[in-house]
Task: inverse folding
């Protein structure tokens, strides 16, 4: 029986890999490597450095609090956290977590010692080049290859560079429809992990078209779910795959995440399509690769190419950092359409439900970028991160020594801070850093500056701290200075977006209007409930200006 194609289901989000590589370089570079004990040691270290997210539900409340408020952990505490996860096979879990880093050519252990490769070092050192680095790695990851012959044998028909297969599959579907439609997430879950030969593109395209025609006629939600699973069961049986649909769904989700990290695709949460911003890159790639697996004479020949950060040469790849102002202008123009507003609503709901896409912290910061693109009217948009996609959105969190976002207006500045922490952990993490960032910015610029603090829910003790800093009276404020900190929870933001959806033809916000909103919310009240109510009511008044 054949095996479905997968990169990894333990490292679901590729954004973690650069952080984990830094840990590898710090603790394991040049050390003798064995596949039994060292991957487990790797797990302890990435938990210790907090670049791996264990299940906190398996810890007692004291350990949960200790984990959440610590920037790094003690080694023995990290080891205890790993053991508390109660994995059925902790050795296998550790190997699986390490595997994609080696599979994509960022480390090499095949001579018995661990070495961070040229590609890996570039990923560590050049945050702004993450998309291009992942793209080059995925263009070299093929099936079969010398490192995965146990699972993907040539005799079973594997002959593909999976990334090229995904590009060609979407192009084939768009050609059939004579317009850019893309491929749905449910279609990815059924068909993408089964695409083992580049020459099967036409056949799978027909399968997807037939699936669409039948699926759109089904009205009942339960019947739709049953039809998806039945379609996969018949398809997998015909093609001799042994994995159940749940596995195909996980593998498809993982492939989508890694492929989208190249920035060649756009994912609106429902459909994935080719990224129009990357048309020249896609054209160059398809001129150089057919999608068939390349032939190598030996393991070393394959690894030499896989580990080479200069291979393959891509002459057309544009840096989003160098083109950021243009990208921001495009993002602002597109921000007021229905599709973007629905994406924002979906992102808000995901954050409230703790359903992560890139990672909770990154998802929260992507939301505040989208929100400020929508409100617009700024003079300069200052992204503190270099790892940005072609929509101008971050794919890593802002450094801890400054705000999550700084937006310059003519008459004032705005810094935005966000968190997904809740309760006491939220207060411990944010009660000092947020006012410090705001105070430092005022000292540096000598400019009137507001801070909006956004969270799914805001801890009442943290609100008390921010209210005190906003008090203009003597013996209050932060270092004797009144600070304009405005806490807003996501449900209020959600209402604003819902009102925008009702008024798509009348969404325009001037700097004067936005400044007046900020002033109206920056009014001190003695009672905490009155202070919060004023903020929420004024935000709703701002919403109602478009009604």
Result:
């Amino acid at each position: 029986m054949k095996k479905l194609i997968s990169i990894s289901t333990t490292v679901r989000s590729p954004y973690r890999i650069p952080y984990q590589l830094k840990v590898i370089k710090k603790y394991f570079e040049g050390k003798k490597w064995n596949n039994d004990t060292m991957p487990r040691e790797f797990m302890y270290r990435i938990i210790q450095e907090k670049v791996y997210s264990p299940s906190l539900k398996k810890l007692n409340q004291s350990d949960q609090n200790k984990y959440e408020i610590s920037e790094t952990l003690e080694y023995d505490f990290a080891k205890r956290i790993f053991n508390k996860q109660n994995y059925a096979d902790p050795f296998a879990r550790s190997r699986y977590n390490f595997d994609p880093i080696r599979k994509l050519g960022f480390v090499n252990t095949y001579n018995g010692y661990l070495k961070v490769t040229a590609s890996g070092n570039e990923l560590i050192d050049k945050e702004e080049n993450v998309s291009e680095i992942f793209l080059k790695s995925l263009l070299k990851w093929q099936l079969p290859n010398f490192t995965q012959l146990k699972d993907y044998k040539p005799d079973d028909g594997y002959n593909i560079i999976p990334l090229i297969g995904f590009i060609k599959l979407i192009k084939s579907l768009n050609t059939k429809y004579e317009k850019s439609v893309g491929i749905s997430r449910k279609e990815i879950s059924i068909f993408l992990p089964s695409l083992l030969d580049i020459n099967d593109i036409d056949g799978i395209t027909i399968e997807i078209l037939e699936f669409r025609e039948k699926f759109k006629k089904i009205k009942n939600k339960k019947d739709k779910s049953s039809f998806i699973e039945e379609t996969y069961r018949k398809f997998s049986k015909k093609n001799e795959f042994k994995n159940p649909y749940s596995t195909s769904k996980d593998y498809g989700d993982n492939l989508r995440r890694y492929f989208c990290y190249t920035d060649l695709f756009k994912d609106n949460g429902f459909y994935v399509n080719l990224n129009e911003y990357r048309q020249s890159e896609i054209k160059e790639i398809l001129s150089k690769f057919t999608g068939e697996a390349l032939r190598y004479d030996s393991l070393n020949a394959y690894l030499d190419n896989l580990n080479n950060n200069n291979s393959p040469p891509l002459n057309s790849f544009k840096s989003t950092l160098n083109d950021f102002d243009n990208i921001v202008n495009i993002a602002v123009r597109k921000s007021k359409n229905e599709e973007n507003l629905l994406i924002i609503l979906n992102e808000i709901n995901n954050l409230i439900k703790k359903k992560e896409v890139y990672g909770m912290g990154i998802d929260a910061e992507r939301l505040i970028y989208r929100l400020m693109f929508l409100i617009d009217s700024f003079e300069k948009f200052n992204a503190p991160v270099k790892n940005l996609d072609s929509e101008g959105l971050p794919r890593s969190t802002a450094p801890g020594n400054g705000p999550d976002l700084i937006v310059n207006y003519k008459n004032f500045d705005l810094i935005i801070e966000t968190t997904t922490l809740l309760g006491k952990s939220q207060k411990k993490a944010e009660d000092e850093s947020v006012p410090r960032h705001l105070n430092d910015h005022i000292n540096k610029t000598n400019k009137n500056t507001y801070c909006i603090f956004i969270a799914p829910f805001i801890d009442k003790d943290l609100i008390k701290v921010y209210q005190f800093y906003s008090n203009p009276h003597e013996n209050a404020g932060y270092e004797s200075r009144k600070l304009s900190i405005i806490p807003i929870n996501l449900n209020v933001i959600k209402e604003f977006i819902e009102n925008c959806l009702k008024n798509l033809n009348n969404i325009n916000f001037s700097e004067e209007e936005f400044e007046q909103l900020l002033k109206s919310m920056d009014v001190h009240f003695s009672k905490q409930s009155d202070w919060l109510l004023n903020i929420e009511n004024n935000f709703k008044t701002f919403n109602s200006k478009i009604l």
User: Anything to note?
Assistant: Residues 324-544 form a domain with the Restriction Endonuclease fold (CATH 3.40.91.50). The chain has three domains: 1-125, 128-318, 324-544. DSSP finds 23 helices and ten strands in the chain. The first strand starts at residue 107 and ends at 108.
